Amino acid sequence: MARFRPHHLLALSVLAAAPAPAAEWEGALKGTARVLADTNASRDFSDATTGGSGGLDQALSLLGSAEGRATFERSQVVGRYELGLRKYLGFTDEDTLVQAGALEGSLALGSEFGVGLEGHAKDRRGGSRAYSDLGASAFVEYAPDVRLALRLRGGARRFVYRPDATANFGGPEVGVLGRYRFDRRHSLSVFGEWGSRGYGTQARTRPGTTVPAPGLREDGALTAGATYNYRGPVALGLTYAYQESTSNSFGETVLRHRLTGNAGVRLPWRVTLLAQGTLGFSSYPDGIFLSPEIILVEEDEGQNSLSLKLARPISEKVDAELSWGLWSTRLPRNNLTYTRQVFGLGFTWRD
After folding, report:
1. 18, exposed or middle or buried, with CB in 10 Å at 0-12, 13-18, 19+?
2. How far is CA 319 from CA 30, 130, 192, 313, in A?
3. Which of 127, 276, 283, 344 is positioned for an S-S bond with 34, CB 3.0–4.6 A?
4. Residues with Cβ < 8 Å from 49, sequence gap 6 or more?
5. Which positions make up the signal peptide (predicted)?
6. Residue 350 C-alpha from the chain's centroid
7. In the beta sheet, which residues pair with residue 104?
């Protein structure tokens, strides 16, 4: 998955097309507070014998973000920081604090090429899925005009999963992102990424064989896909992603297909409707399923999801919001299912 935002990819063509003054600064702040009702606060899996999953609980959610951009004559620095806090009334073990940040600097070389450095970090504390995800890379980009942009990057990533150190990994990564704007309403992006992941644990051998142990576990992770966006009376987006993680450790190889769609439309009385849905399919060639905890870390909230949000401005800077989300995952080999709904009511402030 890409570590940068598509609109950052066009920075080179913008700089080349219109020379900036000595320095130009931009920034934005955003904060959201919500009261939530969560039908599976403990994020439990269930089966036919145990019945329904986790209990209903109420929670307070606080989200904040800050981003800034400094543009110079031939260079640009972009930074973003996000903070999320969720506090439950009953399932206090699921209280979470999530922080994420990214920083990118780019330099235009002539009118079409540019180079830069980028770094990102995400840290999640609390709950049953605490982890830290760190990465840094160098990139080169090509943007002959505002319609076409291409970025190639190479770097390294380190992932630390705190409940189970055997899931920790690190290694090099390479990636590519391309974007083409057909016109002001239609655009197409393609992306790809490959990473070599080294683990500090012994790889498992196939049961019933006398083949010597392959040594430490090593995975190759591939992601590839495409996104189509339409901006008109209705905003639409459709993304397909293929993920393949091939491991020398028996039972750890997994193949995933993921289709995500989103839409936004203005309704009467200044109400905006936002919708997003995801369908996922996973297969395990060795016939062994990874632990539910690791699956949720990789896919956030499960393979399939649907979320809706209604927003209406109540002042120049404040919106009232009503939201609903459904997430689910099914593991057919062992009949485990994960289902969760979250209802929310809150307000968003923008600077």
Report:
1. exposed
2. 11, 31, 36, 4
3. 344
4. none
5. 1-22
6. 22
7. 78, 118
**Is residue 1 in a domain?**
no
Q: Is 181 within a domain?
A: yes
Both tokens of 24, joined, read 């130009």
Q: pLDDT (tens digit, 9 = 90+) per residue, 197-224?
A: 999 999 888 887 777 778 999 999 999 9
Give bridge partners of residue 247 from the DSSP assignment: 219
Domain count, the chain: 1
Instruction: Evaluate whether residue 346 is within a structural domain.
Output: yes
pLDDT in tens, 45-86: 776 555 555 589 999 999 999 999 999 989 999 999 999 999
Identify the H or E element spanning 294.
Answer: helix 292-299
Domain CATH for 196 = 2.40.160
Angle at 173 between CA 8 and CA 81, to 5 degrees: 40
Structure token digits, residue 343: 């209802």
**Tokens describing residue 34:** 């919500």
What secondary structure does DSSP assign to 76-118, as a single string?
EEEEEEEEEEEEESS-GGG-EEEEEEEEEEEEEETTTEEEEEE
Provide the Cα torsion 181, 182, 188, 193; round to 10°: -50
